[in-house]
Write a structure and sequence with these properties.
- This protein is mostly helical.
- It has a domain of 228 residues.
- Helix content is 81%, strand content 0%.
- It has 21 helices and no strands.
- Helix 5 packs parallel to helix 9, helix 13 packs antiparallel against helix 20 and helix 15 crosses helix 17.
- It is globular.
- The relative contact order is 0.11.
- This is Oligosaccharide flippase family protein.
- Keywords: Cell membrane, Membrane, Transmembrane, Transmembrane helix.
- It comes from Qipengyuania oceanensis.
- InterPro entries: Poly_Biosynth_Transport.
- Belongs to the polysaccharide synthase family.
Length: 492
């Protein structure tokens, strides 16, 4: 099987599963925004920020080390699972011990029960079957797709509990149900009886050591603002900030994350052929940006109507935050393949340094933004940090693959031009759409359609004007053609 065909199959498997999960996420968010208060979302956001920060402190990327290694035996797999078990025990113990101090920190004694439950969630989250990650090395992505789909049960539980209790506990308990079911199913779809051993710890740690530091910095990068805000502002404002962020990153998260998951094992199989690896990187990076960047910018352009349709009028202050968060995530889509290619080459130190230098900039910028301009300042600081991360990433790609900066910028030029046309079309026609339609749904659909036509039309026009040369548009057309009905029609 060719790498492209394998990645396409993976994109269909994992991407399809993530699409279903994304639909459930969007539906759950829409319902919860109308059932729960900003205060409820604030408590859930605090719990989530603390959980993922602690998870990152113990995240060694051991399962990913299995994928990167050229050869893996049963001892490696059992060692990876044992490390995951020890990590889970450490997470649960921490939250049991720290539940009361954390509740005191957030000035809400009732939250100690929340921290105990999310500690259990964090412990269960890391105990899934290592074989579903290892399967991706052989371009088998269905097990991971099933794993993601099982998390939908948690979203259904969240909605049902919210309808019954109208409390933040719906989110806390629903998340636990989702990760628990997914972990259990992972052992059913690929049978595995783990054995406790650390005999291959040194083999795996060479890859995982830098990845642990990277995970710590990356999570702190993305959660630092929420960790600080959750201590300094009322929970209702924290809820506004958190739900705006959750809505804004849906387009890029649900397109980039599944593609990154399948890209790493694909690139890891090409490390002995650097010219081929370079070509694969260019195709993947330009295509991912061409898909996800317009989704992010599109959401920013229609944020007013999108928030009213998806969240309701009680979130009237959310659109401006959705705009800044969506633009921030869109910028990240242009350098989203840096980490997978560095991991494939075993250059995990670069993956860490990428996040480390960004974190060094983020801490003072977020604190200054929050001090002088409140929540808006903190959000804008995140955008500046994403620009810094992008600049650093471009430099590291040049070091890893020898790809000049001008060539990295040139491969995104058609996408950037199409984005400019899309933004101009939507902004110029927004007053007309708002004067024509009074319903938020019609405004949202109209502006989204205008943006889509402008972007797709411009992208195709540029591609044709350039002589239909290789690039994101051609890559997408070729991928689509592999799964056209004519391809599967019997001969004769």
């Amino acid at each position: 099987m060719s790498m492209r065909h394998g990645l396409v199959r993976g994109a269909l498997s994992i991407g399809g599963a993530r699409a279903v999960t994304s639909a459930f996420n969007a539906g759950a968010l829409l319902v919860l925004a109308r059932l729960l208060t900003p205060h409820d979302f604030g408590i859930a956001a605090i719990a989530s920020a603390v959980l993922y920060f602690i998870v990152s402190l113990t995240q060694f990327s051991i399962y990913q080390a299995l994928v990167q290694r050229p050869t893996v035996d049963q001892e490696h797999i059992d060692t990876a699972w044992t490390i995951a078990l020890l990590r889970s025990l450490a997470i649960a113990t921490f939250f049991v011990v720290a539940a009361w101090p954390l509740a005191y920190l957030y000035d809400d004694w009732s939250m100690h029960r929340v921290f105990v439950v999310i500690g259990i969630t964090g412990a269960v989250m890391g105990l899934y079957n290592p074989h579903i990650v290892l399967a991706q090395k052989g371009m088998r992505f269905t097990p991971m797709a099933v794993y993601h789909l099982c998390k939908c049960a948690g979203l259904v539980t969240v909605v049902v509990l919210a309808l019954i209790f109208r409390s933040f506990w719906a989110i806390i308990i629903g998340n636990l149900v989702g990760v628990a079911l997914a972990s259990i199913v992972s052992y059913i779809i690929i049978p595995y009886r783990p054995r406790v051993t650390l005999s291959r710890f040194r083999d795996l740690w060479g890859f995982s050591g830098w990845m642990f530091l990277n995970q710590l910095c990356e999570t702190t990068n993305w959660r630092f603002d929420q960790l600080v805000i959750s201590v300094l502002v009322p929970k209702a404002q924290m809820g506004l900030y958190a739900i705006s962020y959750s809505l804004a990153i849906i387009p890029t998260r649900e397109t980039i994350q599944p593609l990154r998951e399948i890209l790493f094992p694909g690139l890891a199989n090409l490390t002995d052929d650097l010219p081929r690896l370079l070509r694969a990187f260019v195709r993947a990076q330009s295509t991912m940006a061409a898909i996800s960047a317009p989704l992010a910018l599109g959401l920013a352009l229609v944020a007013d109507s999108a928030v009213m349709v998806m969240l309701g009028h009680q979130w009237v202050d959310a659109p401006r935050f959705v705009q800044i968060f969506a633009i921030t995530s869109g910028i990240g889509s242009f350098v989203s393949c840096t980490a997978p290619v560095a991991m494939a080459l075993g250059a995990t130190r670069i993956v860490f340094l990428q996040q480390f230098w960004t974190l060094i900039a983020r801490i003072p910028l977020v604190l200054a933004g929050l001090h002088f301009y409140g929540l808006w300042g903190a959000a804008c600081a995140g955008l500046v940090c994403e620009l810094i991360l992008g600049t650093i990433s471009v430099g590291y790609v040049r070091r890893l693959l020898g790809l000049p900066v001008r060539d990295q910028l040139r491969m995104h030029l058609p996408t950037l031009l199409a984005l400019g046309v899309m933004a101009g079309a939507v902004l110029s026609l927004t007053p007309l759409v708002y004067s024509t339609f009074s319903a938020d749904l019609l405004r949202f659909v109209s502006l989204t359609t205008i943006g889509a036509i402008a972007y797709v039309g411009t992208s195709l026009a540029i591609w044709i004007a350039q002589g239909r040369k290789a690039g994101a548009v051609r890559e997408l057309i070729e991928i689509a053609s592999q799964f056209s009905p004519a391809r599967f029609r019997p001969a004769g």
